[in-house]
Amino acid sequence: CIKANAKSCGECIQAGPNCGWCKKTDFLQEGEPTSARCDDLAALKSKGCPVEDIENPRGSKQVLEDREVTNRKIGAAEKLKPEAITQIQPQKLVLKLRVGEPQTFSLKFKRAEDYPIDLYYLMDLSYSMKDDLENVKSLGTALMLEMEKITSDFRIGFGSFVEKTVMPYISTTPAKLRNPCTGDQNCTSPFSYKNVLSLTSEGNKFNELVGKQHISGNLDSPEGGFDAIMQVAVCGEQIGWRNVTRLLVFSTDAGFHFAGDGKLGGIVLPNDGKCHLENNMYTMSHYYDYPSIAHLVQKLSENNIQTIFAVTEEFQAVYKELKNLIPKSAVGTLSSNSSNVIQLIIDAYNSLSSEVILENSKLPKGVTISYKSFCKNGVNDTQEDGRKCSNISIGDEVKFEINVTANECPKKGQNETIKIKPLGFTEEVEINLQFICECQCQSEGEPNSPACHEGNGTFECGACRCNEGRIGRLCECSTDEVNSEDMDAYCRRENSTEICSNNGECICGQCVCKKRENTNEVYSGKYCECDNFNCDRSNGLICGGNGICKCRVCECFPNFTGSACDCSLDTFPCMASNGQICNGRGTCECGTCNCTDPKFQGPTCEMCQTCLGVCAEHKDCVQCRAFDKGEKKETCSQECMHFNMTRVESRDKLPQPGQPDPLSHCKEKDVDDCWFYFTYSVNSNGEANVHVVETPECPSGPDIIPIVAGVVAGIVLIGLALLLIWKLLMIIHDRREFAKFEKEKMNAKWDTVS
């Protein structure tokens, strides 16, 4: 929105669907251009523009005609005129379009049962179709009987064609012009196209008139069928077309001439696409060239005619390619003598009517349209396939969701009309497009307003729209004065050579500040000396995210201060567990405790590395007051009266953790080496409270008798053990000596014997 550089409300709302214009008169800051009034809605609100002063017109839709689709069964007693049958809904609506904002509406289509049908049979009467003509002569009544199964309102017509009546397509000798056939064959004179029978509900009349037709002849193989199709399409009155389903059956066994082939006969004028029937004969075949395929497609579509090509097997490939170029057309294989033509027509009709394809008229410049289909059996499609639904039976209902978007406003802003219709049907939806190119406040503008420097502009939507040749926010200058050096002097700050602080342009003696790529960053001020992005930062954020940058100075939100709004005035982070700020040992600055006693530290000045603990600090005073002993026994009344003391019977009766006041449990030794227990706490009023167990725990003296008895018993046991060891060693020694003696004794006996 900002980049659109909109000078008026109308230009602003054309910049995008989310752009709004603030018409509040004093909305702009000094130095801001008029285009700063245009921004996205959230930005305008954040800048202080009241919601009621924001121009933001929205598109809309209004349905003018919305008749329900017809529910009618075949054979119903009630006979409706074709114009009373509705197959498409709604029929007429108005869309108000704002640039970039799509408007969506739903379109419903339902194939009506017993819907009237007009069928025109266009036949090639060149000589090769002789045997086919015999079978077609009884086509009227037979086809009537078959079509009664589909509709009770059926009409049939007949036309024939051969070729342009000039060389080299036919022989122009007098004899050949009378009878183009050879031998004794009786053929009719060649012709381009003849309307034999206009559409009628009398099948017998069809048989009668067709029975009187004769074969003709020509020289070349391709036929002049395109001339005939064009005349059938555009000569609605002569053919008798109604606003119902229109079928054209094109029967031939040959190819076709198309635009450009007329040059062979010296015909160079393009086909004009108009009706030239006189006495039911096409009279301008020698004057106008064959129509092009695109021209045929246009006329067939304009006149809602669905074409069935009944051609022989030989030319199937050619006409299938043609079918791909002509919407709502079908190709059937014609037997060599046209005996299967009725079944071919029925099959082709069922194929054509089972598919609905939406088309729209030419769109105005800058308008786009998209489709989404909701077909049978949950089949949904978008883009080009969103225009159509297939496999539709009579009585089936399908829906389409259609988006219409204007990407720009028409130059003159006039309304436009487009139409959407199903191919091959006469019914259509008429859509009137109304473009929102101006704001409501512009119609309330005051031309030549005194607010615009003596009437040099129109005051509208809170700003001046200058007359031609005038510029400036208040139209105070003419374009001739813009480059005047005298004007530049008004754009310099005192004692400065910079024009608009190098952040803007001097226009009409006033600074118009530059725009930044980041639309949230803005220069402002009389000399563009201010901005909202060069303030001190904290944690990477301008003003720490806790204030607004105005003219390079932070304006802090409540409870914040400092050059970068990084100093919180909230004392909650400094609150100690005892309810005191910084434990009473410091001051709270920017949410952090500044401890006044240097020996204390921590988030709330609760830690002291060099201090005695609470227990050691109060041990002597508790000992002297509770037990009347200890180092401070003599000075107890002077030094130890700063706390309230309560005696309890046992350790279980001491206060336990979980109470509101901070609590310390202590276990200390007295001068008699006895343990005494107490707790120390400080309440929210700063009063110290001590609870002490009234009886110290003293260790008992040693029991001498067990000790002496243990020592004596130990000595005796050790003596006995030594005695036993000595005895064991002596036994081992004696046994060794005895064994030695026995050995020497044995040696002495041996000596005696010898």
From TrEMBL:
Name this protein carries in UniProt? Integrin beta
Q: Which residues form the Integrin beta subunit tail domain?
A: 615-703
**The organism of origin for this protein:** Chlamydotis macqueenii
What family, per the record? Answer: Belongs to the integrin beta chain family.
| One GO biological process term | cell-cell adhesion
Residues in PSI domain copies: 1-50
Q: Taxonomically, which superkingdom?
A: Eukaryota
User: Any idea where this protein resides?
Assistant: Cell membrane; Cell projection, Invadopodium membrane; Cell projection, Lamellipodium; Cell projection, Ruffle membrane
